[in-house]
Please model this.
Amino acid sequence: MSIAVIRSEVQQALRHPTGYQIRSWVAAVLLALSLLLPYWHLTLNAPQYPGGLRTSVYLTRVGGDAAEIDILNHYIGMKSLTFAAPLERTLAVPLVLAGVLAVTASAFLGRLGLLLQAPAVVFPLGVVADLGYWLWRFGHSLDPTAPIRLDPFMPAIIGRSTVMQFVTHATFGWGFLLSAGTAVLALYNIITWSRHR
Amino acid sequence: MRQRWIVGVAVVLALLLLAVAGGRFGVSTATSTPNLEGLIKAKGLTPDQVRAAVQTFVPPGKYDEYLMFASGGQSGQVLVFGMPSMRLLRVIGVFSPEPWQGYGFSTETQGILREQAQAREALTWGDTHHPAISETNAEYDGQFLFINDKANARMAVIDLRDFSTKQIVRNPNAYSNHGAVVSPNTEYILEGTQYAAPFPFKYVPLTQENYNTHYRGLATFWKFDRAKGRIDPSRSFQIELPPYWQDLSDFGKFESDGWVYMNSFNTERAIGGTLAKQPAMEIGASARDMDYMHVINYKKAAELIAQGKGTTVNGIKVLSLKDAVANGVLYFAPEPKSPHGNDIAPRGDYIVVGGKLDPNVTVYSHKKIQQAIKDKAFSGTDPYGVPILAFDRVMEAQVKIGLGPLHTQFDDRGNAYTSLFLDSAVAKWTLGAPYKKGGDAWKLVDKLPVQYNIGHLAAVTGDTAKPGGKYLVALNKWSVDQYTNVGPLFPQNFQLIDISGDKMVLLSNTPVGLAEPHLVQIIPLEKVKSWAVYPEVGTNPLTMKLDPNATTIGKERIVRKGTTVEVWMTAMRSHFTPDRIQVKKGDTVILYITNIERAKDAIHGFAIDRYNVNLSLEPGKFETVRFVADRAGVFPFYCTEFCSALHLEMAGYLEVAP
Model:
């Protein structure tokens, strides 16, 4: 495709966007926004913490009462949250931006564009799988010399679980919901592609 | 058969009815009403007592409406109570070491305690009398608290962000002081000298002639630098006064802004000498019918000091008595003898004086005083040339309220409340115009007995421009029969009184069993913005900023330089890092400890056995402790504040090799 063809494609798309294109752009915006929002929340309730402790996991960092949770976790020999998913945190911004770019660009491309929608569909599933992996890993690499010894355990990805006097509640955050929205839009685009063109 | 069936149905119906009724009225009908009534009956409580109990009850987990700062008397500290529950919330170490707070043990707080003490004075106590909350526009702003040490003429500054003492200044020209009051915007904190002494601070044999010529009183105006949160002695000043015993004072506000009113007694200049057949101090000092209320134009005095009129005496600028008289800074108004309270009404228009030995409160008008000064309406001068204003020209009213009137505070409805020491009562009386008009003015309206020998009283924000008018506390010196006996040293008795209605109502008694508080100040809770944790990990409590020696995880270290061993340590649940320190006998050990916790109440202590070290490390706080390891041995150190399940394990060893 020559530059001129691309330009006319783009102009055409901007002037009379199709439903497919609008969905792609909305999907791109949602995915980009999700970078700024927490993907996952963990609330810990115990008698001596009125209101509970709350930590929020973003794609790039861990926020909230992470420091206090680390202090508590060291009693059971759990690693500090700062050691979780270092590679994922580093790659998060370039990966997501690449995804945003791919979805945006796919609106202007043909069959190749369809292929570019695919990563957005898989992304939230990947996030859940990775989160599950790290929860499993943290729960199964407890320091055997820790003051309090627990059997290896798998914290719940969603919902309630109990560790000593703490009752924990895990929920998805807005970041995850936005990325899921992106996935739904992208999937819809893929399924209905034959009708777009 | 059929009857049984009917009975059966009736029973079922009755049970159903009961269940419905129980469900409807819930717990109250089913259980607690009979219990409550039973309780009241068993304890023999009157309806008024039950009402008082409910009124002052603060349910678990709920907060009080007011904070009350009480002087800690001979303990040298400040006590903080919640009101109306009257529960003691905390003690603040001020003039005495306070181990729980590590006060007087860390290098930072040792510096505060020793800062102004003179070389040979090893002061380990103070006599705190008068707390004063910082003010903005003559209302409490809740930022700072000042308190005097009567015994050693010192003044302390407490920062209400962390409820900790930040500074103590010592009056270089006085032995004792009385009163701590702030100007309407806290530019100055004022203290009177109480007991006249040789001026400047030196030895002059105590003869009547020497007393008259060389002994002096002082009004000391400590300049407060709000931005720094410190008193600035270099910008403070004193006014030299005759050797009367200057007592309590108050800053004018609004129309009387720029002026100060201060009581004095012993204008007889009695010097005692009972063994030499001279009259006892108490006799000699009460001979005359009138003493002198000092009327001081302090803004004028500050101007004169700024113009270079003062001389520097022991590091502080002093305006001489001569210059004060010559420039219209100082006047006297006669007041009933041996006065105590000297309190200015909310609008700054009236000054109320309680003459201990007179059944009246005497009220002066600021306007009349100003007019009398303008008209030179003097009835004479004292031996030092201070003009004495004609009593009938400055007095507004005398209200006969009872025996032994001392201190006065105000409500928001034009009433004044005065403690009556001899009557053991609180008198409620009305102010004149513009507060109350015509026949309602200057009248005793109510009197409530208190138990017993009341000293100060204090109402909610009752000495500010906006009195609250809800509660009043009577600070009684004697409790006699009010509490179970705990030995001959009886507790003091705080009594909470509801002043919101026409009649005063006694609500509760609170014993204070650690010293004799004198005055309290009561501020709405929401006005005090205190920290739950230090805002930044490594905050130095003196500078309230991040300390350069604060440490974080992974940066802990021990460094030896010659015979000095420096340790950068962190504390968190449940370990100190490092937990082993090795030094040699004779080394100077400096520990820089940072509590890196961020959770509320995750407090650690740090004590070294046999080395008299105990710090309090609140979350985020940084402290230094410095000592010479002068005894060989292996000394455990441990956390002294139960911090966690593994608190006992939070320990380590200091090895001191011989």
Summary: Strands of chain A lie at 40-45, 53-57, 62-64, 159-163, 166-172. The helical segments of chain A are 3-15, 19-34, 66-73, 86-106, 111-139, 174-191, 193-196. The first strand of chain A starts at residue 40 and ends at 45. Chain A touches chain B through six residues (CB under 8 Å).
